[in-house]
Write a structure and sequence with these properties.
Elements lengths: L1 H15 L6 H7 L17 H33 L9
Amino acid sequence: MRVWVQISEAYTCLLSGARQEGEHVVGYSRVVRSGVPRGGGGGRRNHALIGLPFLFIILGTAALGGTNVARSYRKQKADYPSHNPFLP
């Protein structure tokens, strides 16, 4: 049971980026995995800002695809008109 508590505390510490005052934690938390010393604030990233450009790319691609589909649909409807009242 004690191992589970230690794993949970370590995972929480990694997610929050906060430093804890413990002899085994202080030595490790001073250096991140890249080897660059971390500032005193904890160095927490804003993941929403990191993913924002990718969201714009996806939405822009969907919008351009939608306009191309609508344009080709209107062109085909004009080229081949249907007199069926159940079709648009």
